Amino acid sequence: MSLPTSTSFKMPALTRRGFGARIAQATVLAAALGLAACGDAGDGSAAGGSSVVNPALAYEHPLGEITLGDPDAPLTLVEYASYTCGHCAAFHAVNLPPLKEQYIETGKVFYIFREYPLDPVATAASMLTRCVATDKALQFADVLFARQQQWAFVQDPRSALQAIARQGGISASQFEACMTDQEVLDGLREVQKHAQETLQVQATPTIFVGDEKINGNLPWAQLEEIITNQLPG
Fold first, then answer.
1. Which residues form the Thioredoxin-like fold domain (predicted)?
2. For domain 55-230, which CATH number applies: 3.40.30.10, 3.40.50.10860, 3.40.50.11540, 3.40.50.10490?
């Protein structure tokens, strides 16, 4: 069983070993250059001058949103992320914990997580997340990011993903069903197409905080300043 393909990521046929090696090399290069985003663009900065308020919110996710917090919170933060993106993993390890504690759990921010897979391995991880109960999906996403080096950049990422799925209570037959669910794959592609064409998302993470678009992963102090400025009052 091959990994699903992502419409936005064009690449020649590769062995799993070669594929993992190329992603690892790209991640190392990005780190060496000081980049804060994975993909085509992104400099870890806020995209100023946005004239559209909450552009990411004017969209109904075909697969249902993965969220955390109170939908009636005064501010919404939307993250577009790829599971094989090292900067996305860094966001979930460093920025998401204080975001949860100080803003989401206190009712100030409503958080929406949207998959934006940059490659077939990330697409497979996104499809797998959609097999998890909705209220556990974000927790499973955090596990995938925390263990990214154990499955995303290995010789056989599919088997590594299946091992994580098994630990999460997903059987072999359920895993196979996840990897071949055309409805889920089509939904992921639709979300990605909308993000590219309507929101000009070109890299991950791309984060929308109120009416501000952030390309890449900012240090927490900078992200918190943007959140504070966007909160009413």
1. 64-228
2. 3.40.30.10
